[in-house]
Structure formats: C-alpha cells, structure tokens
Amino acid sequence: MTAQTGERPSRLFVGLAATTALLTFGLIIFGAVVRVTDSGLGCGNEWPTCHGSIIPPLDNLTAWIEWLHRFFAVLIGLFGLAMLGIAITAYRKRNQIVLGTTTVAAVLFALQSTLGALVVVMDLPPTTVTLHLGTAMLLLAALTVACLMAFYRPKLHYRRDRFTALAFVTTALAFVIILTGALVRGSGATLACTDYPLCNGQLLPFEQGSLATIHMMHRFAVAALGLSLILVVWYAFTNRTSRSIRLLAAGALVTYFLQATVGALFVLSAAAPLWSATHVALAALTWVLMVILSTIDTINSRNTMGTEGTWQPQTSEAALNR
C-alpha cells in the first residue's frame, strides 16, 4: 500500500473514530437523562421491542426517551462496524495497535448492548446499571485511543518517568468515581447524605447504614481524584514541556472542580435532575481528558511510529531541550 492510497482510509478511519467517540459521549449524557426522567423502563421490560412494537406509542414520552437512547446506541454500533472494517483492511499490517484497540471497542460495544438489555429485563438492578455505565466509559476510552493512535505523531520524545505512572493512576481514579457515582444512583443512596461536605453531620457515617456509607465512599474517591489531579498538573508544568500535556492536565483539573461543585449542588438541591445530568457529563469529560493525556504521554514516551507503522528510535525530551 502506497502512502497516498493508505492516506485516504486513514483519514476516513480517524473521522469515523472521532464521530463515534463523540456519539458515545453524547449517549452517556443521554443515558443520564434517561435516569433522571425515570425513563429506564419507558419501554417496560421489553428489549429490543418497546411496548410490543418497534416504534413506541406517540403519546408516551418516557418510552420515546428510552427508544431514542436505544436508537443512538444502534447508530454507534453501525459506525463501529465501519471502523472495524476499515481497521482490518487499512491497519492490519501497518498499525496493529489501531486494529487491536478497534477490536476491543467492538467487544465492549457488544458487552454494553448486552448489559443494556439486562438492565431493562431485570428492572434496573444497581450492579448491572453500574456495569453498563462503566462499560460505556471503557468504550469511549477505546474509541478515543484508536483515534489518537491512528493520527497522532509526537513532536517531543522522552523516557517514561513518574508522571506517566501518575497519569495512569489518576485516569483509573477518574473511572472509579464514575463507577461509585453510578452505584450511588443505582442503589438509591443519592440523598442518603443531605448536607455537604459532611454526611448528616458526620465525616464517617458508617453507623447510618449502607446507603450513607456508599454515598460517602463516593465522596472519598472524588477527594482522592482531586489530590491526584493536582499532582498531575504540578508534574505537567514542572516535568513536561509539551503544551498539549499541560493543557490537558489543566483542563482535567478545571473540569474536575466543576464536577465536584455540581455534585455538591446536586445534593443540596435535593437531587435536581439538571445537576444530575450535568454531573455525569463532567465526570465523563474528566475521564476522557485523562484518557487522552495518558495516551499522548505514552506515545511521547516510547519510540514514535512512522508513516507505515515502523518504530523509529528517538532522543529524550531532556536531550531535545539542551
């Protein structure tokens, strides 16, 4: 395959991957709308049909909200199949990382769809709801990584250090707070703590029952993520000269603070639906920013990929700055 013939499917793949990732991000937010409007069972316990038909009744708003959620999921699946087809034909030999990541995304989509069906059929069990959201976040990450690996070429190269490990730990923490947040919502622990930052006047409300404990564990995870993000920003501005790394770190920290503020408002407003959907959106944005940061830093700190997928040795960032 020549560079010119390989360039066209590469551009198509990047466009498809970016579009599919954005659709997945939107679907995650729309999923929050489904929850706050109590539309999770808008089509009853049926899947894939909705009240016995493909199209829901025109006068049933909750059914239409749930149906639209399913429709966009199908659209993402079609885009994902197109991505997989292009990855197999265009990247099988010259960039197996892109092919592998796209394959993982396809598996995650199939798993997410299965969990989505189980959520409906089993009357929204908290554990399955949590796994459904977690899988959606992993799908978003896989699509984002596939897109980055297909087009990103580093301008700076350096050895891996503590920052790389810290970035991965922080990304994992961002995922943890999403899971614990989903568990809080799914278990009915949203208003188990009615004040902030304490839980009904206590820092450790373990004797208040399991719901208060679940809620407070989520807050502790959020606090741990905040400390980790502050370290990420500090290390980015002291140990990295990459402008993209610095901007991503700062953006993730700002988004985190907005997310934490909205989380507090969500509790103090007695779980107002607007704050709930916004909270999920900001959590997803924090997650994807950290995924992008970790991916870019990983690419920068290893040998860079050439135009046809061969890896070329590069000098370190410190050497480039001398």
Keywords:
single chain, about 325 residues, mainly alpha, 2 domains, two-stranded antiparallel ribbon, 9 helices, 2 strands, about 0% strand, flat, disordered N terminus, disordered C terminus
Question: Can you offer a commentary on this structure?
Answer:
The chain is mainly α. It has two domains: 1-151, no CATH class; 155-322. It is 72% helix and 1% strand. It is built from nine helices and two strands. The protein has a two-stranded antiparallel sheet with strand order 1-2. β1 and β2 (311-312) form a beta hairpin. Mean pLDDT is 86; it is low at 1-6 and 304-322.
Mean pLDDT: 86
Order of helices and strands: HHHHHHHHEEH
- Give the strand order of the largest sheet, numbering strands 1, 2, ... along the chain: 1-2
Q: In percent, how helical is the residue content? A: over 70%
- The coarse silhouette is flat
Number of strands: 2
* Count of distinct structural domains: 2
Radius of gyration: 21 Å
Residue fraction in strands: under 5%
* Beginning-to-end CA distance, first to last residue: 39 Å
H/I helix tally: 9
Low-pLDDT stretches: 1-6, 304-322
Largest sheet: 2 strands, antiparallel
> Would you tell me the structural class of the helices and strands?
mainly alpha
